[in-house]
Amino acid sequence: MKGTCVIAWLFSSLGWWRLAQPETDTSQCQRAEHPVTSYKEIGPWLREFRAKNAVDFSQLTFDPGQKELVVGARNYLFRLQLEDLSLIQAVEWECDEATKKACYSKGKSKEECQNYIRVLLVSGDWLFTCGTNAFTPVCTNRTLSNLTEIHDQISGMARCPYSPQHNSTALLTAGGELYAATAMDFPGRDPAIYRSLGILPPLRTAQYNSKWLNEPNFVSSYDIGNFTYFFFRENAVEHDCGKTVFSRAARVCKNDIGGRFLLEDTWTTFMKARLNCSRPGEVPFYYNELQSTFFLAELDLIYGIFTTNVNSIAASAVCVFNLSAISQAFNGPFKYQENSRSAWLPYPNPNPNFQCGTVDQGLYMNLTERNLQDAQKFILMHEVVQPVTSVPSFMEDSSRFFHMVVDVVQGRDTLIHVIYLATGRSMWYRLRNE
User: Fold this and answer.
1) Which one of 140, 242, 266, 319 is most buried, counting C-beta atoms within 10 A?
2) What is the DSSP string of 171-199?
3) pLDDT exceeds cutoff 50 at 21
4) pLDDT value at residue 99
5) In this structure, what are the phi and psi dihedrals at residue 297, rounded to the nearest 5 degrees?
6) Total tally of structural domains belonging to the chain
7) Range of 388's domain?
8) CATH classification of the domain holding 329
9) Neighbouring C-beta atoms of residue 366, cutoff 10 Å
């Protein structure tokens, strides 16, 4: 979020709001008549943090042990009290002059040649954070309770984007592996989902292969069971009638160790499927561009904000997906194109009910040469992941939302899902009965 301000935190006490009464007709629970409240109306319950010269508050994470909020802004890291957003510690993290000059010499502007924080992850008592560092990305491990204490510094290449304009996502597993989806090079032409750190070998998606990733914009990532899931939007390689963007869910096995001869240093378990969010009708109206997600782990639900293309009429929708529906799509047939002149056709999944392989002495016991050949060419799933309801849970014309958070509170007779939506300039929230 750009500008001189701004983090707004809604207190958990907002959970007592009962603006949505239980519906007797459950079909009405998905309609747009649910209460909607604007940012201005909830102003009395908001707290705000500002810091001089600090802009682009783009990364937030929590230290649950100390009940603190850690924030990354351009050239700054902050620790804040979770209760009222009061400042505990501010640490400046700027690029050195030599790095800035090298950035200017490559044709980049003063605005671009700053350190934009793009990775901010808590691991025990440490904070792992990465910044663009004037197109020379760098990562540090810091003491969480004192951000000036830097334990080590490593290259941010393949862990953090070079450009502040490139979207990225990253997570750390309990085993210490870092999964990052970002651009791997200076011009941003080599996007990848990449694993590093930890004890498992580094792996990435295939390089310069549009059937794996085609100019993606990465949105989010989650560590769920045996898999790491990634959500993004990209140019649809399977769409033959002009250029269009589709939203995707992708996953890899966390114990993937790459191939032998084929797919060496490359994922052998990477799959992706299209997410559908549309207004139904004789001619459906599609919201193709995923902007933000929220994983409601206790209910295995993925909430997503989808918008129209920037060159079309502005519109936004919230669609909700069951994790089981996403998993089911990965069990189904693939969508496969034999060559550039062939049609995209369904191809039976050679390994239905796919499970992550077992690792023994550095080799998959059940990974054959045929498995590697299949993994190299079968990437895209044929089935489209459908949302929980045919009508989006929320639709708004003439607006584009870019951020969301979901909370579940107990109403008088039912659970209520509170959805917070932000455009960057304002925030709305709405209620959805479960």
Assistant:
1) 319
2) EE-TTS-EEEEEE-STTS--EEEEEESSS
3) no
4) 96
5) -60, -35
6) 1
7) 5-80+99-112+163-433
8) 2.130.10.10
9) 11
